[in-house]
Write a structure and sequence with these properties.
Elements lengths: L3 H10 L5 E3 L4 H4 L9 E5 L1 H5 L7 E5 L1 H15 L5 H32 L5 E5 L9 H7 L6 E6 L2 H11 L4 E2 L9 E3 L11 H6 L6 E5 L5 H15 L1
Parallel strand pairs: 1-2, 6-7
Antiparallel strand pairs: 2-3, 4-5, 5-8, 7-8
Helix pairs in contact: 5-9, 7-9
Length: 232
């Protein structure tokens, strides 16, 4: 996790702008402009659509920056949502708060239920008391969010056994969806990095990323526990 207010203070002292990708934290649980960021970006395909229907992105900033910098760039390069995709995203905003709060509540319960499982070497969730940056998370996020990571003791082979054993959670590189989704970063989102670069980021071959959806939390815990037992 990044101390956004601290980074903003350092950057602004040197005349630099701060741009935050806030997709994991969502606009519901972390308000980056209030923390000092100048620009905030979202993949609206994630929580804002939240149902795997449309691709899109959102850029937020001051009126002066939007009109003076972003609008001229978009007018000359042509990047724009289609009217239909924009309509879908606007409809997604109507339920964003309800969905994110339900997903975050389920994620917190899953993290507590799986903590200490013998198949895991790490369980990473900012809402847990043992997270090394728990104080920072509590200061700048309203909750621990909808995402957690599981690191399996058996490395890549164990991670793949775990993923293959899941029945409710789907395999996908997307996140923030109404369906719970799992991915293996070392072979997907971060596969172009060297093993040394991945290690520096804490991405081991046994690491699995879980985006918690809107299914029954008890069913999700049961599915995840069964898959962890299969992986072990």
């Amino acid at each position: 996790m990044i101390d956004i207010a601290g980074v903003a203070a350092l950057a602004h002292a040197r005349g630099a702008q701060v741009i935050v990708d806030n997709v994991f934290a969502t606009p519901i649980f972390q308000r980056c402009l209030e923390l000092g960021a100048d620009v905030v970006i979202y993949s609206a395909t994630k929580h804002i659509d939240g149902q795997g229907r449309c691709l899109g992105g959102i850029v937020l900033g001051s009126r002066e920056w939007i009109r003076g910098s972003l609008e001229p760039f978009l007018k000359h390069t042509g990047g724009a949502l289609s009217p239909f995709n924009a309509w879908v995203m606007l409809k997604g905003l109507e339920t964003l708060d309800l969905r994110c709060r339900a997903q975050a509540s389920a994620a917190a319960g899953i993290a507590e239920a799986l903590a200490g499982h013998p198949a895991l070497t790490r369980l990473i969730y900012p809402g847990l008391p043992d997270h090394p940056q728990r104080a920072l998370a509590a200061r700048q996020m309203e909750t621990g969010g909808t995402m957690l990571s599981l690191e399996l003791a058996g490395g890549k082979a164990a991670a793949f056994r775990f993923i293959d054993a899941l029945r409710i959670v789907l395999i996908s590189n997307n996140l923030g969806d109404a369906r719970s989704l799992v991915t293996h970063p070392a072979t997907t989102t971060h596969q172009r990095l060297t093993p040394e670069q991945r290690a520096a980021l804490g991405i081991s071959d046994g690491l699995v990323r879980l985006s918690v959806g809107l299914e029954d939390p008890g069913d999700l815990v049961a599915d995840l526990r069964r898959a962890l037992d299969a992986a072990a």
